[in-house]
């Protein structure tokens, strides 16, 4: 792999990417549905980062041959320089070292988990194409083809690039593993021109780090079993001191998690506020959280991702029913209003230069019906120039809107969910797919373009995505209510959502299916068991089929879940192997497979280390003894989910046919160009 330099204009770059679609009248309902491949295509534009001085934008574009290459756009002249021409790799991530130099890592989009043989590496290059250097190996060998100096090891990852002028250094983490597989990290400071590195911070068993805005390593996170300790130091010459020790799984009053340092050296943390997470300033002199929160979002946990300037905190990102930014800087707040007026149908996320020397800001515009588009806004002239669209084949005018709804579970708990109704239909008495997110301890629903949701809606199905109890993002009580409720109240929340959709006229009670991956796959199977009259079919990919097997493993393969989670977390959050043995058996799909009679699609990855394919295979062998309507497919190269477009297309083509047979689509549009699925792989 070697970099090269090419020069072209912005218009030439745009020729390979569709710009923002024009607003026009909605297409007639009889228009052909988009081909399935369009929904599951790799991103054409997969990244864009503004330089620290605002003079350039680094972009990742799928170029000729489909490989993702790195380009820079010179904003005053709008000229484009191509910096890479890899034929066997794709650029996966980028960061600015300073205003003239970038650092990046690679991956291969053409292979899945089971075929990965190389690490991401770490590379640096100047924006004029000079000064190329590979900093970290992507193999077990540290030998460099272009230098006598050894490279960093394959398990090196970028931690921080300050972007300060004239500074060629970055900070990386280098991981090591104990004899039992427990990881720990140290921080290295690396000169991206010479490749010389030196240790910047080390602490036994550290697994996380936080730097201040001057590039000093100030916070270390140490995790041992179920204990998490937060350590702090003033600078590299002072010793570490412990700020807080807490239980990873059982939170107590006074617990917090590190967030960031601002340009003035203030330290901010995430901590509880009226039942949800908020961002506070932490007084390091008093070792205490300082006063009222800096920002919070009632009813939602405040993510608090900072937008930093050279000398102050400019704003913070957040997510409620949709994403947004709170600006502390009044001029930027005014710029946000100007951009929102130009693009009223999208969430417009502004990226600003740390030390701006131009009037340009970067805008990422997206919505529930529009995949991310990147634009450049001139704050002086008011001109908005499109750079490209992540999925140019997707027409927002043909997509279906989603909205946040709330319904009451049978015990009175309010459950948030996103509801998508297919475009071109009445919105009443529709066939519905209840999509259950994985995790389960994550937020599943977001107001964004989702490929599975939009594909199903394009075929005439309503889609309901509940954030059932146990989901994060909605406060501690909602999260904690899901503990030890796999297959029980968590499952009731899913069924209650379907019944809410029936009661409100959205769903036909005789045409509802359930689908999901990982935990969502487990919930799919439990939904078919608990509510056979409600759910007429199921789509499960990489789903857990037995909780005990997830914890204890099987002779055919163990889960890669952390041992500490299996030992402590699962006992508290899922169920104790001894005390809750009867419950775990009663909520095991594998133990009750003979009771499932509905049509069912099962998909698993042969290289899945989280839910080994053996879990799915054992379940398939059990359920197929009494249920002739079960389809099995194994993608031997895939891991915990489908990475390859061909496998996504194959799986969702199978799913589309299952849904059509089981509940019948409401769509009057004929799908275009859907290939026939390949034969199923026998387990």
Care to describe what's here?
17% of the residues lie in helices and 34% in strands. The protein has 683 residues and is α+β, with helices and mostly antiparallel strands. Strand 20 (276-283) and strand 21 form a beta hairpin. The chain contains twelve helices and 36 strands. Among the domains are: 203-315; 401-662, 3-Layer(aba) Sandwich (Rossmann fold), CATH 3.40.50. It starts with 5 loop residues before the first strand and ends in a 21-residue tail after the last helix. The strands form eight sheets. The protein has an eight-stranded mixed beta sheet, with helices on both faces.
Q: CATH superfamily of the domain at 401-662, please?
A: Alpha/Beta hydrolase fold, catalytic domain
Outline type: globular
Q: Percent helix among the residues?
A: 10-25%
Question: Order of strands across the widest beta sheet?
Answer: 29-30-32-31-33-34-35-36
Secondary-structure class: alpha+beta
Low-confidence stretches are 1-9, 18-30, 667-682
The share of residues in extended strands comes to 25-35%
**Can you tell me the CATH class of the domain at 401-662?**
Alpha Beta
**Count of helix runs:** 12
- The Cα radius of gyration reads 26 Å
The largest β sheet comes out as:
8 strands, mixed
Q: Can you tell me the CATH architecture of the domain at 401-662?
A: 3-Layer(aba) Sandwich
Quaternary structure of the protein: single chain
């Amino acid at each position: 792999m070697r970099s090269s330099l090419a020069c072209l204009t912005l218009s030439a770059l745009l020729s390979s990417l569709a710009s923002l679609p024009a607003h026009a009248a909605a297409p007639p309902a009889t228009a052909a549905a988009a081909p399935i491949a369009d929904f599951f295509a790799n991103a054409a534009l997969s990244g864009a980062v503004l330089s620290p001085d605002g003079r350039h934008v680094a972009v990742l574009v799928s170029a000729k041959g489909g490989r993702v290459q790195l380009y820079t756009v010179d904003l005053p002249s709008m000229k484009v320089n191509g910096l890479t021409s890899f034929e066997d790799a794709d650029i996966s991530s980028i960061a600015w070292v300073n205003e003239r130099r970038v650092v990046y890592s690679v991956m291969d989009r053409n292979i899945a988990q089971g075929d990965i043989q190389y690490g991401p590496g770490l590379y640096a290059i100047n924006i004029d194409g000079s000064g190329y250097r590979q900093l970290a190996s992507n193999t077990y060998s540290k030998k460099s083809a272009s230098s006598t100096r050894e490279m960093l090891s394959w398990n090196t990852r970028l931690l921080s690039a300050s972007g300060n002028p004239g500074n060629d250094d970055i900070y990386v983490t280098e991981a090591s593993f104990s004899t039992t597989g427990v990881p720990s990290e140290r921080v290295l400071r690396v000169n991206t021109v010479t490749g010389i590195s030196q240790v910047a911070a080390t602490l036994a068993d550290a697994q996380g780090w936080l730097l201040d805005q001057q590039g000093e390593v100030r916070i270390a996170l140490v995790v041992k079993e179920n204990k998490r300790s937060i350590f702090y130091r003033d600078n590299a010459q002072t010793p570490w001191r412990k700020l807080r020790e807490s239980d990873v799984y059982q939170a107590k009053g006074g617990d917090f998690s590190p967030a960031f340092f601002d340009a003035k050296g203030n330290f901010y943390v995430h901590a509880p506020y009226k039942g949800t997470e908020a961002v506070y300033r932490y007084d390091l002199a008093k070792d205490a959280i300082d006063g009222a929160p800096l920002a919070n979002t009632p009813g939602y946990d405040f993510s608090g991702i900072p937008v930093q300037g050279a000398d102050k905190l400019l704003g913070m990102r957040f997510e409620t029913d949709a994403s947004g930014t709170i600006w502390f800087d009044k001029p930027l707040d005014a710029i946000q209003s100007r951009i929102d007026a130009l693009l009223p149908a999208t969430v417009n996320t502004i990226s600003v230069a740390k030390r701006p020397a131009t009037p340009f800001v970067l805008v990422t515009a997206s919505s529930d019906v529009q995949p991310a588009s990147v634009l450049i806004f001139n704050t002086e002239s008011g001109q908005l120039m499109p750079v490209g669209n992540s999925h140019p084949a997707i027409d927002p005018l043909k997509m279906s809107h989603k909205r946040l709804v709330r319904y009451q579970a049978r015990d009175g708990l309010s459950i948030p969910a996103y509801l998508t109704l297919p475009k071109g239909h009445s919105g009443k008495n529709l066939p519905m797919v209840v999509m259950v997110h994985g995790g389960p301890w994550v937020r599943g629903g977001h107001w964004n373009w989702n490929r599975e949701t939009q594909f199903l809606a394009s075929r005439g199905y309503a889609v309901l995505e509940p954030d059932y109890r146990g989901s994060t993002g909605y406060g501690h009580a909602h999260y904690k209510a899901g503990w030890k409720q796999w297959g029980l109240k968590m499952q009731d929340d899913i069924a209650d959502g379907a019944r809410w959709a029936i009661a409100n006229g959205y769903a036909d009670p005789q045409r509802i299916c359930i689908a999901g991956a990982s935990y969502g796959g487990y919930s799919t199977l439990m939904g078919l068991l608990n509510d056979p009259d409600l759910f007429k079919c199921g789509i499960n990919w990489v789903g857990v089929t037995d909780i005990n097997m997830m914890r204890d493993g099987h002779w055919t393969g163990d889960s890669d879940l952390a041992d500490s989670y299996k030992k402590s977390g699962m006992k508290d959050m899922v169920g104790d192997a001894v005390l809750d043995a009867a419950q775990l058996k009663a909520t095991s799909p594998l133990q009750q497979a003979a009771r499932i009679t509905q049509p069912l699609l099962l998909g698993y990855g042969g290289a899945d280390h989280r839910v080994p394919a053996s879990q799915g295979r054992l379940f398939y062998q059990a359920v197929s003894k009494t249920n002739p309507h079960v389809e099995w497919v194994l993608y031997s190269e895939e891991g915990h989910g489908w990475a390859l477009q061909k496998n996504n297309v194959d799986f969702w083509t199978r799913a589309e046919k299952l849904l059509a047979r089981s509940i019948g689509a409401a769509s009057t549009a004929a799908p275009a160009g859907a290939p026939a699925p390949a034969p199923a792989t026998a387990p």
